[in-house]
Amino acid sequence: MLKNLNHFDGAGNAIMVDVSEKKITERTATASGKIIVSAEIFKMIETGTAKKGDVLGVARIAGIMAAVRLVQ
């Protein structure tokens, strides 16, 4: 299957390809991640009692800001 991909050189390194002639299409991407924390830290995040405030709210805003920067 890798033989059909033109985004990689012979050594397997990612390379730029010219896509200017491709038709515009709508695409969707989904990202996921995993963060491992202690039970104590998890409880603080869950209850909103972390010293830094709303950890999940800040992470959510950071994710949205990053996505916006990608489409600009």
Overall description:
By secondary structure, this protein is mainly α. It has a domain at 32-72. The chain is built from 2 helices and no strands. The chain is elongated, with a radius of gyration of 20 Å.
What is the succession of H and E elements? HH
**Gyration radius over CA:** 20 Å
| Total beta strand runs | 0
Percentage of residues in DSSP E strands: under 5%
Global shape: elongated
Q: How many DSSP helices?
A: 2
- What would you call the structural class? mainly alpha
Uncertain segments = none
Q: Helices and strands in order, then pairings?
A:
Elements: H1 39-47, H2 55-71
Summary of the model, kept short:
With 72 residues, this protein is an all-alpha fold. The chain has helices at residues 39-47, 55-71.
Task: Based on the model shown, name its key terms.
mainly alpha; single chain; 72 residues; 2 helices
